[in-house]
Amino acid sequence: MSFSTLPNNTNERWYRDPGLRWNVFHWDVSEDLVCDLTTDDMSLLTGLQAMPAWQEFFRHPTGTLLGLYAAIFYLPSIPAAFLGDFLADRYGRRTPIIAGCFIVGVGSLLNSLASSIAMWLIGRGVIGFGGGMAKVAAPALIQEIAHPRLRPMLAACYWSFFHFGAILAAFMTFAGLYIEGDWSWRMPSMIQVIGPGTVFGVGFFLPESPRWLVKHRRENAALSVLAKYHANGYVEDELVQWEMEQIRHALAHEGSQASYLDFVKTPGNRRRLIIVLTLCVGLNWMGNGVISYYLSPVLKMVGVTRPVEITLINAGLAIWNLILALSASLSTERLGRRRLFFISGWGMLLSYSVITALSAQFSQKGVKAVGLAVIPVLFIYYGFYSIAWTPLPVMYASEILPFSLRTKGIALFTAFGTGANAFNQFVNATALSAIGWKYYLVYIGVIAAYLGIVHVLYAETRGLSIEEISKLFDKPEPEVAPEGKKGEWIAGFVVSTDASL
User: What transmembrane ranges does the database entry give (predicted)?
Assistant: First the structure.
């Protein structure tokens, strides 16, 4: 039996249904935090590098120093991710989201009022710590409160919507070019305080995860949440009753306690762990880290040096990425996760190879037309990146994890991804400064390797609830063949090895 065949007291079009409209609103509140966090880290830092006032205040950073400015955002996220898991398991999914928003707001305020480089770096570290907590709980909450019909799209849109924040940051830095003095770069950070502040206030009204409520023996509260948002308050709805039974069965199967060691105890969990780690590393190791954080030096390498040109290209990339990421997010069920990963991988491999070749030609011959040709190929490359590696990693990592390991897995995703990204950004700045376009060859190899990883490890999950997805990884143990039976006994069925039968 599948959820798609069950009668359900909701309208087929979510925007015409009050319960589903609230479901989408709660998703919007959860993902809005990521918009603010990622905006500060990617598009905002890229735009700031094009501002003369920022460059002067921060002593024209390049190489190792610029890498430190990018990496300092990530390091506090590593311990914060495990704190987020503890809070999410002990006090509910909402708690680290609310606490994380408050901390991010404080960090943004420190950034905007920084009187020294040290204060600005502390502010970035504070933002990273708050984000590390919240980014563990928000994807889990979306997976666990979303109507099963909407879950894949909402979960995929979660990370895609950070491009809204990237667009805002790009245009704020563009506007900052026309503001005199330090407020040209302080203004975007000051405006950014509004986002986490809003989510902090609204976060108190988010529903708690029904899975968490059942785990903590509050089944009536869980049933109430499911009925309110998945059936407009009708408790006896067949879909709601099916969901409750699925949740009870899954939690009973998982047991009462879980630890990080559970990831290495079974073949299914080991496979999940490898997928989670490859997803979190790949998120910023597909060559996008060079473009996301160092667009300004990349463009200068091919002859684009005017601040207004760099900030407008940054804004254009954000708009382009948003369109493609959202289109892919809404197609995850129709196209499937594996197909999107493959289309994305082959497209990135080819376009990144072209970027490398054009950059090499410009470096050797200095023909501006060759350098400018890199810009449209950057858009093509990022389009292929955005159709899979923007919407899928967080979504796929959280949906393949069982409830007891979901926030633990996302904590590992955040911590290892943060560490890998911090190292990556530190190395990127140094390598770009030292060897220029030749550094792109490393990422061509990484993209090719990931095509193999996806083919071997990543299972297709479309059309399934999060409880059903677990069955793809947790296969039943082979049983012992009864005496006298010919053939191989597999999961209760005899597969004959006798050609005469």
Answer: 66-88, 95-114, 120-142, 154-179, 185-207, 273-295, 310-328, 340-363, 369-388, 409-427, 439-458
